[in-house]
Design goal:
2 copies of one chain form a homodimer. By secondary structure, chain A is mainly α. Helices cover 65% and strands 0% of the residues of chain A. Chain A is built from 11 helices and no strands. The first copy, chain A, is globular and about 50 Å long. The N and C termini of chain A lie far apart (62 Å). The structure holds a DNA duplex.
DNA sequence: TAAAAACTTGCAGGCTGTGCAAGTTCGCTC
DNA sequence: GAGCGAACTTGCACAGCCTGCAAGTTTTTA
């Protein structure tokens, strides 16, 4: 059993989290310094003081060490999405479901700024952010379909999820770029609001 | 010189296109049959009757042989986007710029159905569709920023491009899944219309 | 304290992707 | 139409990614 929710994590789980964090930190630091292609898994593992074989016990590939975050597990997001009152529109429900993820990111501000800088310089990593990996995305689509009372073959739920993901990723990049000093939450709100308004052209600067 | 636009392609360029098409067809067929992980570059090359070293002269990685299509080169799309009259909204301009790509896909109906089936079964490939790779995407963002008369640090252009891409990809998958028998053009229109309307919840089936 | 479960590690090995140095095909010009 | 140069193909060597397996070690549980 690997730590049920309300149990205090034992030494083993603490060590695991520690090793994982060390690998992630090392990966991000090295890639930020040298670029994705000039860092090997062996170097990352070395920096985190584990064998490279152990690296692959934590991550299925190099990219995963850079993008995945335990604080952003998809399951809670899906659960929260299902818990949003039915009268809220699907789009807004997704935004609400992301609230705690947004807070988690803002709380780990420095790590995420670095992570997003790395992602911005290696666009292949971008789609990995936030349920880029089918599993969670499919679950969210299913929940939205249920919320709306439409079949799984309806076109709306996949569109809402894809668009919401795009909005969230865009807001994160903007937040990390620092062009706008506002907190992530505000930037996400702005993006979702723009979408809810139908993405009208903004007034050009006079 | 590699075939300027209005010149008749010589034997060499014809052979290149042929080899490329053979590699793509072989890759799609084999992956559809066996799954992405159970097909090697060597097998694909073998099926297309070239060496595996030659495979990498055409594609930088295995995925590229499955997703990229010469008919969907990003440059023309960017050019068309820039050519859309300025009074058209950015979102609609992107939709218009995609028109010829949509036609090209519909014309190659069978190939694209197979390709999208493969992509649906291997979601890691999805982001590669349609300017998933920064270069074109950045160019489109720049064009939209110019259209709108806003700076490159403005948040709207990236949002529009990301959302439009999500809409296009979603429509393509829907089209290929065959849940809806309408032509791709209609499905793309529907998705863009839904976005322009602010993604309101559809009426649930009574 | 002892068995069970979980985690780490090394090793062997297949596959991806790249640089280099032939060899071959094609296009162009005289 | 001979021949030169550019473009393309290929084999080879090699770095790096990732996996399965079979130890060994640490933590948990009884």
């Amino acid at each position: 059993m690997t730590t049920t929710d309300h149990a205090a994590p034992g030494r083993r789980d603490r060590k695991k989290a520690q090793t994982r964090a060390a690998l992630t930190a090392a990966a991000l630091r090295l890639v930020a310094e040298r670029g994705l292609e000039h860092v090997t898994v062996e170097e990352i593992s070395e920096a985190a003081d584990v064998s490279s074989r152990t690296f692959f016990n934590y991550f299925t590939c190099k990219d995963e060490a850079l993008t995945d975050d335990p604080a952003l597990d998809g399951n809670p997001v899906v659960a929260r999405l299902a818990a949003v009152p039915a009268q809220v529109s699907a789009l807004q429900a997704v935004r609400v479901a992301l609230d705690e993820s947004i807070d988690a990111i803002q709380a780990d501000r420095e790590l995420w700024r670095l992570r997003l800088a790395v992602i911005a310089q290696n666009p292949a990593l971008l789609p990995r952010l936030v349920a880029g990996n089918s599993a969670t995305e499919q679950a969210m689509i299913a929940v939205v379909a249920t919320r709306l009372g439409v079949g799984l073959d309806h076109g709306h739920p996949p569109l809402v999820i894809a668009v919401a993901g795009a909005a969230f990723r865009t807001a994160m990049l903007r937040w990390a770029a620092g062009d706008d000093a506002r907190p992530l939450h505000d930037l996400v709100d702005e993006a979702f609001a723009a979408i809810a308004a139908g993405l009208p052209d903004p007034p050009s600067l006079s």
